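[step 3/7] fold_predict: job queued, chain A
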Amino acid sequence: MAKPVYALVGADSYLQLQELAAILRSLPAQRSDFDGESAELAEVLDELRSFAMFGGGEKLVVVRNADKFVSTYREQLEEYVAAPSSSGVLVLRMNSLPGNQKIHKLIARNGAVIACEPPKDLVGWAVKHASGAQKVTMTPDAARLLVELIGDDLGRLDTEIAKLAITAEGGKITVADVEQNVVFTREREVWDLTNALALGHTEEALRRWRQLLETDRSIEYAVFGILVTWLQDVAFVIRAGPSAAKRLVWKYKEHLPKFISAAQAMGPRGLARTLDLLTEIEKQSKSGVGDAAENVERFILALAPVITR
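[step 4/7] structure written:
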């Protein structure tokens, strides 16, 4: 039986939508959607209470981007959640809802607060998801490579696993399958970009970045995760030495010698400064300071003098 109010809390929209689908399965109902950035409280409450006036079944009222909505109407929502309507179910899709807030405690008592954050063990999640959702076996190495390429976007991971399952021979997804079928060319192009950066070839790096944007605008959202993974590999080579880099040959293949040269050119000090700069640029992008694509371009322009000092 559905509860009268839910808070789906977390940045992962895929998990939020999965939880929302589960609520819908337990409650065949007429659905209304509102954008929390612009929704008026009166409109939302009218929808929740309209069954009592017009009949015809329960209402499911979903408020997406609900953080601002809850902040603006906190006291009124606390009153509603303390005694929710019996004719409707309210679902608040939020990025965060601290546990010490009164409204969190009220929703937890009278409804449910559901965490929607990516699991810490993404590789394990991918293996389990492939088996459960697609009925195929995914090797841990294949899952690890997929996670490195995609990051913690569960929606994209789900999509790529579904595509891989279609072409998997014998019901098994291997590293070779991921290399051949998952937008691997794009990630290789990003690695070429970062290698150009480490070697101080700023103009080449800018050219590669602009080419990537022309072919796939979504790269501006994935690039930070790819850059972090690349810098982790750089840190490994700097720490363990070039001879240890052979463990990365599965990823860089014929590009490995160039990657090793780039890591050595960057060195420990250049790596530290690069990480600081990337952290600052990513923070600005997430907080809405500047366009993400332009912020990456600023990172490229700022990096050359940083790593050569």
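[step 5/7] annotate
The chain has three domains: 5-115, 122-181, 184-307.
The mean pLDDT is 86.
exit 0
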